[in-house]
Write the structure tokens for this entry.
Amino acid sequence: MDLLSNLRMCGISQFESLNSILSFQNNYQLIIDDYKKEVTNELSEIKEKLEKEMKELKIDYVTKTTNKRDELLLEKDLLEKKLAYYDEAKKKNVFQKIIHYFKRKRIVARKNELDTNFEYFVIYPFRKIKSEIEDQRNKINYIIENFETLIEQKVKQFTKEQEYIRSKIEDNNLLLIGAIGEDNAIKELTRLPDSYYLINNYKEKFYPPIYNRNENDRIFSVQIDHLVIGPSGVFIIETKNWSKDSIENYDLFSPVKQIRRASFTLFVKLNNIIEDLFVFKKSHHWGTKKIPIRNILLMIGEKPREEFQFVKVLTLDMIVNYIAYFEAIFSDEEVHALVKIIE
């Protein structure tokens, strides 16, 4: 679809079909509202997660500092007992006096450290945990204090992105209208009997180009909205979802010329191949049967009052009955062969 290609060129790749584009347009405000709810829930979940993590850190911190406090209290008790021992021990010689002096000095120094800075020695090994708790608390407070602002910032950026997408769809409004028309045509054409085959958005390139002598036109490529291949032949369908103003606009390329151009290329392609196919050679003892190619301009909106040579102008409610009206001249085998050639 040209519309999807144009949007992708603008960096918009989220759409996979016409329905997804129409859904975006119809639910534009709902999409923004849903995003706001999503952001609100995400931010609330982040806050809850931080609170849970902080609670776990606090429990860990309390457990470890409690154990450390008990450990240091036990150490103080042992130090006091050692001091008592050294105070009561008898020194037999100078050497023992010197040893006892230095040992007692170390014990006194350690005991003084604990007496003076007991809480410091309790919490120092776990300062990283305490810092993590503080970081978590700051994050939680930041979210609480700026909850609405954070949501508003994200929603504002998202809305800006959605507005850009909507503006690019509006820039391609003509393609969108055309795509809607083609989609309606496809839905209607699928009502044909199973003996008819539908090919949508048929494209082909020609090297060398096909030369149309009557129009002095070298055709390098062709695009056909819909091809219907069935027992009564081939139907080329160009779909236009045009307003009355578009029909009367001389600047727009003639869809009649467009169909006739496509019809000529298909006629040349089929006739270059069909003579060599056994299924068509054996179909009639007089010779190879002619393949009828009928050109249809399907108008979804307004329809011109005029009729045109070699092109039938129809509306959506007329097309299925028109195609089914023609007499069957091909067998299932021949129809399958035609589909293979065209595809």
Summary: The chain has two domains: 31-157, 190-342. The first strand starts at residue 197 and ends at 212. DSSP finds 13 helices and five strands in the chain. The domain at 190-342 is CATH 3.40.1350 (Trna Endonuclease; Chain: A, domain 1).
